[in-house]
């Protein structure tokens, strides 16, 4: 599993690493997402600060459907979500995901900025 917990300014952040996986390897994204979901669901409600990295990841319709279902299921456990690597068509898909699931995703270009935002409050 590529995803893991990191600490930023003394606060735990769950780093969901989907970076660099192309559409030809969508099974890898699905497998990672299944493992991520298990970890998030095991956490208390409204507690997880998540950083999802989709840098250089291709997303197709099959993955969007899976991401949407996962997001809807884990949303009660998520406190804040920052997302990296989302531009162009992926930005449109992220907006669709937010509209469908009601989960707020804040998009960032820089990991340091995302981590700083996640640990605020």
List keywords for this structure.
121 residues; alpha/beta; Transcription Regulator spoIIAA; 5-stranded mixed beta sheet; 4 helices; 5 strands
Q: Overview of this structure, please?
A:
The protein is an alpha/beta fold and 121 residues long. It has one domain: Transcription Regulator spoIIAA (2-Layer Sandwich), CATH 3.30.750. Helix content is 43%, strand content 23%. The chain contains 4 helices and 5 strands, in the order ββαβαβαβα. The chain has a 5-stranded mixed sheet, sandwiched between helices. Helix 1 packs parallel to helix 2 and helix 2 packs parallel to helix 3. The longest helix is centred in the N-terminal third of the chain and has 16 residues. The radius of gyration is 13 Å and the shape is globular. The N and C termini lie far apart (29 Å).
């Amino acid at each position: 599993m590529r995803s893991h917990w990191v600490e930023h300014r003394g606060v735990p952040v769950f780093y969901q690493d989907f970076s660099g996986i192309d559409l030809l390897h969508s099974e890898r994204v699905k497998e990672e997402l299944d493992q991520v979901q298990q970890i998030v669901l095991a956490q208390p409600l409204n507690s997880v600060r998540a950083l999802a990295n989709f840098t250089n990841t291709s997303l197709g319709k099959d993955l969007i459907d899976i991401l949407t279902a996962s997001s809807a299921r884990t949303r009660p456990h998520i406190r804040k979500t920052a997302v990296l690597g989302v531009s162009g068509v992926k930005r449109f898909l992220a907006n669709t995901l937010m509209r469908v699931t009601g989960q707020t995703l804040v998009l960032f270009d820089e990991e340091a900025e995302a981590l700083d935002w996640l640990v605020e409050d």
